[in-house]
Amino acid sequence: MTDSLRHRLYGIITWVCRFAVGGVFLYSGFVKAIDPWGTIYKFNEYLGVFGIDVNFSLVFVSVLLLCIFEFMTGAFIVTGSFRRAAPIMAALLMLVMTPLTLWIALKDPVPDCGCFGDALIISNWATFWKNIALSLLTAWLVVWNRRVHWLVTPSLQWLGFLADAVFVCVVAMIGYFYQPLIDYRQYPIGSTLVDEGSSGDGEEYVFIYEKDGIKHEFTVDDELPDESEGWTFVDRKALSSPEDSEETRSFAVFDDTDMDVTEDVVSGQGKQLILFIPDLQDVSISSSYQINSLQSLAQSNGTDFIAVVSGSKEDLERWKDLSMAKYPVYTADDTVIKQVVRGNPAVVYLENGMIYWKSSLRGLPYEDFMAEDGNLDIRSFTRDNKMILQNIIFIYLAVLAVIILMSFMTELKNVFGNVNRHGKSTPDDNDR
Questions:
Q1: Bridge partners of 238?
Q2: For the whole model, what pTM was predicted?
């Protein structure tokens, strides 16, 4: 094989590695950024396994930096930007993730690693072997990437850097402050929150009560203890077989006697606003004014309003007392709430049982609905997430296309210049 042919073959292999490694990093960073709350929950799950308690702000910043790092590394590799540094960035991440995913595959501390969020859930062993393959391809890029041509010239790579960073940050901020622009969970907009016969009857729960400082668990088959005898309800958790994932649990709502009242309180007819609070301890009481104003708006719109929260009985009583709630408050498993909607608190609007829109509380235009003369239609709070995402992606790709075109301007000028020089006739030629 000649040197020229070998160099061309190695160039083809390098481009294949670029698209494979870069594509995985792009996809992984994108789906994490789309749903930053889901990534935060996964981070906390890992931290819980290791027994580490970290401030929420630090977790959020770490999640945002990880999304940016993965997405930008993938974009650099695909476009041939930072040809020396980009493969090293990928290699450093693989040096951390490959041993970690091996440990996860062996010990199985979490159901899935969360490397692709809720968009693509694969087994822990599949994740490990995927990382082995990525590590091998990355090793090739560390050696050969800088010897192959780029799509973005080095003098314009800072523009690509800015475009990548702005894109992934905008997507993440929308997902954090409002809702994910793509909902990969089992309750997307347009679906029903409760299907007939799926109110949680097939789910088994264990109820935790405490007496004299000792906690005891009771199943639905046991006779629940009498609180007048000194027993205090502490918590309720779902029981599932090892092969059942948390993502497939049925939506179920309970009253203060721990009875499943899903079919009675989640309306299949008319309009309904449901306030969701997955963690009562983490909600500022200052949000209660917005919630009460939203409840008043719902009442003026002929819309039923209820709250579904997760927390201990003490947390629930404290919330009712401090928030002066004039609406029914029910409880549900926090994992199920997080599958329905992101944010703490968050709101879901139903029409005839179908999810019409969902939003975090801070994502609603509360300046409007809290105004005394506000006369809003609750349906107007909906957003066209598909159109928003399409516009963001279009702008991002258009900017990248312009940067790539600018990168090849010199080559294009040379090509067209040569064509003009060879195709143009001189006066002497015409005389001849």
A1: 205
A2: 0.80
